[in-house]
């Protein structure tokens, strides 16, 4: 009793001394990073060396193989953790020999933390969303941003120039440049009322769904082919893409948008077209090559769905838990397979989801016969691997039948002969751990529990759980990505990992306020959330560089200005064609084929498509055919993801290949050719000055400066001088857009100039 009382008094005194001295340790920013970087690799969910884990306070208080807990709360002198990190004996010291010892500061942090009682608050992302009162008369975004700026002695930037602001809105909301009428109207009167009217106009534009649908397709890992070497073409893939675009235009709330995709086949009395939404699950790669194990490939597809759902809605990377407990987050391997169980009985079906042909019944009966044989073969193949080739042959036959008959493939929950889910040892589908018993659908314990009125949960229950008011991450994760689209950088840098290894939010109170508001008042409306953000002064700020920010906030994390960033690959192509007067704004329909070099097309095992002719050649980027094994070089060079996995945040590189592409690729060369013809046709008898003003307004939304104009006109004259004696070269340079109604040397000279303008950083940068 005396010893324990003595230790209690000692620990109390230590805590008191630390608190009154103002040296309390912040667990999330000081302690957790040390544990994750230096300890979790050996003492996490994978290895748990010496029976000791640092993933939770409870696990650190458990006795390890030595018989001692990791620490004694409030007493660093009696704590094994502190003894080991202080030890000079390399056989005893942690981290062990061969790894860098902790710095003196890190040792001091852990020591003080233990002496203060080792507080371990819940990780911010798993804690309940907290609201805050905001003063009346101020936009909540501006309020929270200013709360972050004030302690640094910083102020927000002034409002962006009207021409910059209208261009920003058009690019962010529709992925297109403003037309001249919209630009001039807003510049003439950039009042708040006109600004709101412009926002409303763009949110109701049919091109809104194209812009924000493309963002979603990155997360859905959308492609028009199956992947792997054979990479067969999915002739019905575009129906899912069009569904996404259409429902975003209609303003479907995010909870319903998610429900239709995750569990559309389970919605009672749902419209048949709702099944199209379940093609989200069919965006996985599908292997139809000879010799593969069909069951192994099915398991891979289920795993892919689990990982996509987790990163997209939960903001967690759970892939490693397929083989073992998570090394950094408190997620067990069994919990991973609880998520897996939600998707383990989802099978591929096919229907006529538009107009039924006259012989629809006979086609569906024929398909049912093939599907029945396939189901029998799949069951036998699980134990008889000699049937691999026959099984894959039937899979390919059914796939080709569906595509050839105009059926739309979608998902359907298996009702009979349901599969049981077991933990797979080391993730091996051939080694189910029967000793652990059947795993039922469930969710990780770090989150609030599922409703428990029923025994067996399904995907509808999973969606209800995701969008319950108690779930801590669904809204946070989605809001963070919307913010990223409108500011060029997220509030949480690790957009698909809110776990222990993820980044801390730069504005946690703002993230929570937006998340709470979006769920309750805005009812998960994406359009309302976007409007609410773009109406803030913070969004409308200038992105101009401010020298005083370079020292205090070089990465603009405090948001004292807007960000400028290059638009995505598809948008670069779209606005180039738009400026040239070539862009075909037709909505929806089967994929089209932009010009792609034969060297790229020949990489694919199956030849399909070629180059589209006529107006289809100039459709928006979202409608171009995406083959996994032969990606359009224009897309690749500007960091378009390869659709192999869910990708919420695209890379943004800057390299010489991009400049070479913009100068020499057929698409951009043709844009300059067409623009030169249309410019001279529109302004046939005018001065170079006026033509220059027109080109700048069309491409950049502003007038050129006197210096810019002088330099460009000098370049124009030099091009004229050269082409005057080279008519043949001028005609070749102009390609199919050479006009018989004008002097080829004059058109070629202007094309040289316009080609330069299309390559300006300012052209493909969103200010």
What does this structure look like?
With 767 residues, the protein is mainly α. Helices cover 47% and strands 2% of the residues. It is built from 31 helices and four strands. The chain has a two-stranded antiparallel ribbon. The radius of gyration is 30 Å and the shape is globular. The N and C termini lie far apart (69 Å).
How do the helices and strands line up, and which of them pair or pack?
Blueprint (H helix, E strand, L loop, with lengths): L1 H19 L6 H12 L18 H5 L18 H7 L17 H12 L24 H10 L12 H12 L6 H9 L3 H12 L2 H15 L16 H14 L3 H10 L10 H4 L16 H21 L18 H11 L2 E6 L8 H22 L6 H17 L3 E6 L45 H8 L7 H14 L20 H13 L5 H9 L12 H6 L12 E2 L2 H11 L18 H4 L31 H5 L18 H9 L1 H17 L5 H13 L5 H18 L3 H8 L9 H15 L6 E2 L1
Antiparallel strand pairs: 1-2, 3-4
Provide the structure class. mainly alpha
Shape: globular
Distance between the termini: 69 Å
Helix content: 40-55%
Strand order of the largest sheet: 1-2
DSSP, total strands: 4
Which strand-content bin applies to the residues? under 5%
For the CA atoms, what is the radius of gyration? 30 Å
Look at the structure and give the mean pLDDT: 91
Largest sheet: 2 strands, antiparallel
Number of helices: 31
> Low-confidence parts, pLDDT < 50 over ≥5 residues?
1-22
């Amino acid at each position: 009793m005396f010893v324990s009382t003595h230790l209690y008094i000692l620990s109390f005194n230590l805590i008191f001394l630390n608190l009154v001295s103002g040296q309390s340790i912040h667990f999330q920013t000081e302690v957790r990073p040390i544990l994750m970087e230096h300890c979790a690799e050996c003492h996490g969910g994978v290895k748990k060396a010496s029976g000791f884990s640092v993933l939770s306070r409870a696990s650190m208080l458990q006795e390890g193989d030595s018989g001692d807990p990791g620490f004694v709360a409030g007493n660093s002198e009696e704590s094994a953790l502190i003894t080991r990190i202080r030890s000079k004996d390399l056989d005893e010291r942690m981290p062990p020999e061969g790894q860098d010892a902790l710095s003196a500061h890190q040792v001091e942090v852990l020591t003080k933390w233990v002496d203060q009682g080792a507080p371990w608050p819940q990780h911010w992302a798993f804690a309940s969303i907290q609201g805050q009162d905001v003063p009346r008369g101020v936009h909540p975004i501006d309020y929270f941003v200013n709360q972050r700026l004030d302690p640094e002695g910083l102020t927000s930037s002034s409002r962006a120039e009207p021409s910059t602001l209208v261009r920003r809105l058009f690019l962010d909301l529709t992925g297109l440049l403003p037309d001249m009428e919209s630009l001039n109207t807003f510049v003439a009167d950039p009042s708040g009322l006109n600004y709101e009217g412009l926002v409303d106009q763009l949110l109701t534009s049919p091109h809104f769904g194209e812009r924000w649908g493309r963002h979603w397709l990155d997360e859905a890992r959308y492609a028009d082919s199956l992947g792997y070497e054979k990479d067969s073409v999915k002739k019905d893939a575009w129906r899912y893409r069009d569904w996404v675009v259409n429902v975003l235009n209609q303003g479907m709330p995010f909870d319903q948008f998610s429900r239709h995709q995750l569990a559309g086949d389970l919605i009672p009395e749902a419209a048949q077209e709702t099944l199209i939404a379940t093609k989200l699950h069919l965006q996985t790669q599908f292997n139809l090559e000879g010799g593969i194990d069909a069951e192994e490939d099915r398991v891979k597809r289920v795993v892919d769905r689990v990982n996509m759902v987790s990163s997209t809605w939960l903001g967690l990377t759970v892939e490693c838990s397929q083989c073992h407990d998570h090394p950094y987050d408190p997620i067990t391997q069994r919990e991973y397979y609880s998520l897996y169980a939600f998707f383990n009985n989802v099978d591929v079906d096919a229907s006529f989801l538009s107009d039924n042909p006259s012989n629809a019944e006979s086609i569906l009966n024929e398909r049912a016969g093939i599907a029945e044989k396939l189901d029998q073969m799949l069951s036998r193949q699980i134990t008889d691997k000699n049937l691999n080739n026959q099984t894959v042959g039937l899979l390919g036959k059914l796939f080709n039948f569906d595509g050839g008959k105009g059926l739309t493939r979608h998902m359907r929950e298996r009702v009979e002969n349901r599969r049981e889910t077991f933990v797979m040892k080391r993730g091996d589908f051939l080694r189910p751990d029967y000793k652990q018993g059947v795993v039922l659908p469930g969710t990780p314990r770090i989150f609030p529990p599922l409703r428990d009125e029923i025994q067996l949960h399904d995907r509808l229950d999973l969606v209800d759980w995701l969008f319950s008011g108690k779930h801590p991450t669904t809204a946070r994760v989605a809001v963070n990505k919307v913010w990223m689209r409108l500011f060029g950088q997220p509030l949480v840098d690790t957009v698909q990992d809110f776990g222990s290894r993820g980044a801390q939010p730069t504005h946690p109170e703002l993230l929570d306020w937006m998340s709470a508001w979006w769920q309750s008042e805005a009812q998960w409306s994406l359009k309302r959330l976007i409007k609410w953000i773009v109406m803030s002064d913070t969004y409308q700020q200038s992105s101009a560089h401010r020298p005083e920010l370079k020292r205090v906030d070089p990465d603009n994390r405090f948001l004292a200005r807007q960000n400028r960033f290059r638009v995505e690959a598809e948008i670069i192509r779209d606005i180039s064609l738009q400026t040239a007067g070539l862009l075909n704004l037709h909505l929806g329909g089967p994929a089209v084929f932009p010009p792609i070099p034969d060297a790229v097309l020949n990489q694919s095992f199956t030849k399909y498509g070629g180059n589209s002719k006529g107006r289809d050649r100039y459709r928006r980027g979202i409608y171009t055919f995406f083959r996994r094994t032969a990606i359009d070089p224009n897309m690749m060079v500007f960091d378009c993801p390869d659709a192999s996995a869910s990708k919420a945040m695209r890379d943004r590189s800057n390299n010489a290949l991009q400049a070479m592409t913009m100068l020499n690729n057929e698409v951009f060369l043709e844009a300059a050719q067409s623009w030169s013809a249309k410019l001279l046709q529109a302004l046939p008898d005018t001065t170079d000055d006026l033509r220059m003003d027109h080109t700048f307004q069309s491409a950049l939304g502003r007038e050129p400066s006197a210096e810019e104009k002088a330099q460009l006109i000098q370049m124009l004259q030099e091009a004229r001088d050269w082409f005057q004696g080279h008519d043949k070269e001028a005609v070749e340079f102009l390609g199919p857009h050479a006009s018989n109604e004008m002097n080829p040397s004059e058109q070629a000279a202007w094309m040289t100039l316009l080609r330069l303008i299309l390559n300006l950083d300012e052209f493909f940068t969103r200010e």
